Every structure is written in C-alpha cells, then in structure tokens.
Amino acid sequence: MGLYTTEAVVVGYRDLGEADRILTLFSPERGKIHAVARGVRRPRSPLMAGTQLFSYSKFLLVEGRNLDSVSQCEIKESFFKIREDLDRMAYGSYFAELLRISTRECDKSEELFRFFIKALYLLQVWEDLQFMARIFELKLMAIQGYAPQIFYCVNCGNRKFKEIWFSSILGGILCEKCKSNDKKAVQILRETLVMMRRMLKGKFEDLVGLKLEESLKKELKTVLIDFVLHHIERKPRTLSFIEDIVKISDK
Ligand SMILES: [Zn+2]
After folding, report:
1. What's the domain range around 231?
2. I want to staple 11 with a disulfide (CB 3.0 to 4.6 A). Which of 96, 104, 193, 214 is the partner?
3. 54 and 88 assigned to the same domain
4. Is 0.90 topped by the overall pTM?
C-alpha cells in the first residue's frame, strides 16, 4: 500500500465509530478523495486542526483497499472565520456541497481547486453573501464546462434583443422570436444580463464590494439556482439550510 502527499481542502466529513471521521478532501492532483482520519475526535489528536471543515492542509495519506487514511497533516490555512459565523458557515457549507455533488471521484482539476480556495478567502470578508453565492454558482459551472450562453441567443445567434429570456434547459438566453423553444424560459431584465456577463467574465475578487438592488439579486437567484439545479442530480441540503436562516433573520 502506497503513501502519497497532496495539498487538499476538507469539503465534507461524517463521523465514524467513537473517535474517527471520514473526510471528503478535494485535491488539485487527485480531485475528490475519501479518507479516514483515525482518532481525530479525541482531545489533542494531532490531526484535529488540519481536518476541520474548510481546512486547507498538506496531507500524508496511505492508500487503502477501500478507503485511504490520513497519516499526517500540516495546516496551511484554517479559515476559522468561516466556521465562527453562522451565515458564512452556511454559505461555505453550500459551496462545499456544490463542489462535492458536481464532481466525480478522481475528477482532478487544479483550476477548480484554486477557485475553491479563493472562494474561501473571499467568504471570510464578503458582505453580501447572497450575491457571492450567485457568482460562485456561475463560475463553478463555467469552470466545469457548463457556462450558460449569455452573449447571444442560444437558439438563433441573435445578439440584439427586444426581450431577453433565460432557459436553464437550453443553457442560455433566448430572444423574443425563440422564447417559445422552452416553455419554462423566464424573462429577465437587461441589467440582470449585464450583471451575469460581468460575473462570468470578471475576476471573483473584483466583484467584492458591489452593491446590488434587491430586485436584481432576486432575479439572479431565480435564474442561477434553477440553472445549477438543472446540472446537478439533487437539490443541495445546505441550500434549504440557507433558506431557513434567511427566514429566521427576516422575522
Ligand atoms: Zn433567437
């Protein structure tokens, strides 16, 4: 059985037995890895700090027949500011779940790894988390090759629009002539389209301080969540959790 080292970020875990934990790691060289961290829930376990949710660490792993195991880990960044804030924790968990369910085992990607680490850094300081989540969704899909076509009509190539419609099923915008190609297409504002283009093409960090009208945020939410759900097999549990938090804070 071989030993290997890799950088990775902890994107999920579940407890096993009395003191163990099965981690889901995401690494640039190997993609998603499931590995058991033995004894990690015991006080003073040397593995504890580097294996918490969102921890970015250097791991020494042992290949197993069914499951690899963590032999050592050295923490590079703990992202503790995410874990100590309920809202940031909820959104971070949503980002991690989206990454888990949109990638397969061994789907390695340096670009996806760097994108996720950048998102965690930004999540520590971002104010409008709802808007940040929309950028995350759009960029996550784009990196995996599922960017929506938002520069011309996905059906006829038209670039001039009287009305703009968005179709998750066809994967992009439709002009007024083509809107009936998808009965579920929704009409969107021009500002929404302009913002989506900026979110897709702009650098994540350059969008940090933007303030958006509520109506624009609402439309982005409707369009992008529907688009993401169309590409993944199930609704993320953590999305319902965020909806619950929003309901509580609105009361
Ligand atoms: Zn068209």
Report:
1. 81-250
2. 96
3. no
4. yes
